[in-house]
Amino acid sequence: MSRAFARIRANRRSTGSTARANFRANADGSRADRRPLTEPPGVRQPTSTPRSRSAAGSYHDVVTATLPTTPAPAPGRAARFVRRLPLPSEAVLRRLAVASLVTQAGIIVTGGAVRLTDSGLGCPDWPHCTAGSLAATPEMGMHGAIEFGNRLLTFVVGAVAFAMLVAVLRTFTSDRPRRDLLVLSAALLGFVPAQAVIGGITVWSDLNPWVVMCHFLVSTVLVGAATVLVRRTQRPLGAVPARVGLPWLERLGLLTLVVTAVAVYLGAVVTGSGPHAGDPDSKRTGLDVAVVTQVHADSVLLLIGISIGLYFTSRAVGSPGRAARAAAVLIAVELGQGLIGLMQYRLELPELLVGLHMLGAALMVMAATDAWYATRWLPSRRPG
Mind telling me which residue stretches traverse the membrane in this protein (predicted)? Predict the structure, then answer.
């Protein structure tokens, strides 16, 4: 009896193990036949005799090998030209930025010289200097030479701005791209032809005072942009410095910059209403010179007061960064500019003092922009 029971148990164990083995084999076969939904047509995993990972590779390796590859587009001529240039150092970028600032301010002074010598229409046409000639002719005399020389300086400004932009673009192919300089560099170069067109409109309009003012004010904006560019190039490897972290001090710096812009605009209105039109026959604004001069003087006094407030506020909070020092420089420039303005008014607008006053306007824009910048960012620290 016991032997019969033993045979029955052995038969049950063999039958159960065989069924389990068949079930596992069927399950493995169904998995092998199953394909992922994302598998491309014509590519299947092996269903028998599984291979090792090193011999067959992964599924992604098989798919990648079957997909066509698109070759990268060849770089254009401009890109190849930029890549051939040597990589500019941080010092080169700073020098180019300073050169941009100097040329932008210098074109204001030379433009003022054109007006003060009555050479605004020395070249009576644009883009030609005169009918049939791009350059000034000997018959046009000194006025033609001065106006044409000022036009040639536009190419100097453009060349410096172009060199600055190319240098910035060259850094994009290195491990230290200066993206923080791109917009300002492109703007400085882009406004060169725009300013040339505005200059041409001033000639076509026979030196309309409002167009001449626009020409001058755009130059002052570019001086402010170049000032920020110079400060950004002083950041080591483009690292963004820490913020000052005082919003109300930053707002006071911004207010100083806005009032500076208003004072410069009113100064341009005074010049557009005075005797130095650029040509004896050019029209003036028609505004009362005494009234607009008084309004301009009041704006300068307001600016000096706000700048003094910015200085002492910066000192009261511990002179964060360069804020107090930049405000002090701005006050010094404003006092010098105010003294020149008072002297030229008392002496009935001599040409030399008017020219110095225009240079002072450019310096005041630089100082106000730098003071505003100093209320936003702490000085950059160089590594090591």
Answer: 92-114, 148-169, 181-204, 210-231, 252-271, 291-312, 324-346, 352-373
